[in-house]
Amino acid sequence: MEVRVKILYTSLCHTDVYFWEAKGQTPVFPRIFGHEAGGIVESVGEGVTDLAPGDHVLPVFTGECKECAHCKSEESNMCDLLRINTDRGVMINDGKTRFSINGKPIYHFVGTSTFSEYTVIHVGCLAKINPAASLDKVCVLSCGISTGFGATVNVAKPAKGSTVAIFGLGAVGLAAAEGARVSGASRIIGVDLNPNRFEEAKKFGCTEFVNPLEHKKPVQEVLAEMTNGGVDRSVECTGNIKAMISAFECVHDGWGVAVLVGVPHKDAEFKTHPMNLLNERTLKGTFFGNYKPRSDLPLVVEKYMNKELELEKFITHSVSFAEINKAFDLMLKGEGLRCIIRMED
């Protein structure tokens, strides 16, 4: 059930940096990072019937076995067999790695390890896409952009003319804003501590901005005052627990829905007064934008092909594979959104 893929383009996502820094989790070493990518199937292993050499694919850090209760449910994308596992550095079939150096194993990362010219991936973690789609553009759909866009269109589901708040204006947050723009939201309020992000966010539909540091009162109160009682939908893309609570408490009673996307610190606790829920506010969580990788990602690629979704504006830099450290430097400085790494240069 394994596929060898020639990676043509990969991009750097903050998750790669987080695990590379080895903060707050058990480090697995040595391992090959990378999970947001596009490539071509080079060969397939025993039992693989859905893919053939030459197919264009997007590797995904989570999977879709199509057999488990989650995969059979229309409401879930959290496959029992292939959902993200950041600690597992080996293949599911035999518990061994497919990379080695001098006879010693090099471990995998979230089942993808795309910072390599070739990688081996379980068939359930590969979305077969339209070969006419430019891999150097659609590769960003294999993680962050789909996560943010899907959080808005699949989970928050803002109505046309509604008001949406987006917490965190990095690549995922801007993808969430893009989802609100495509949905026809009339006001999209960006919330971020970095005012340098505000100008860029206008390209993604943001109409107003709030910097919590510029206000003495909690940002949820600021937003409630701006919107006559609260926003219709909010999407939280930072993982900061204070932002998560603010994102929930800023939605309007009676119909407001808040969606949590960001991954919090392992010891974080979400605290709010139960009346906030009893007053008919809804709190939801999402994982990979509620997209099933194999079933849904090809359709998101088609949205791009049909010009319903813009990807070029997310791609701010491009480097050769030899210059991969430049991509890390850019992300650590907070410069740009997505940096494409060209594997063949």
What does this structure look like?
One of its GO terms (biological process) is formaldehyde catabolic process. It is found in: Cytoplasm. It is an enzyme of class 1 (oxidoreductase). Its cofactor is Zn(2+). With 345 residues, this protein is of the alpha/beta class. The protein has helices spanning 14-21, 69-72, 135-138, 144-156, 171-183, 197-201, 219-226, 241-249, 274-278, 293-305, 324-333, and strands at 2-11, 36-44, 56-59, 99-101, 104-106, 118-122, 126-128, 163-167, 187-191, 208-210, 233-236, 257-260, 282-285, 315-320, 338-342. Helix 9 (274-278) links the parallel strand 12 and strand 13 (282-285). Helix 4 (144-156) packs parallel to helix 5. The longest helix is centred in the middle third of the chain and has 13 residues, at 144-156.
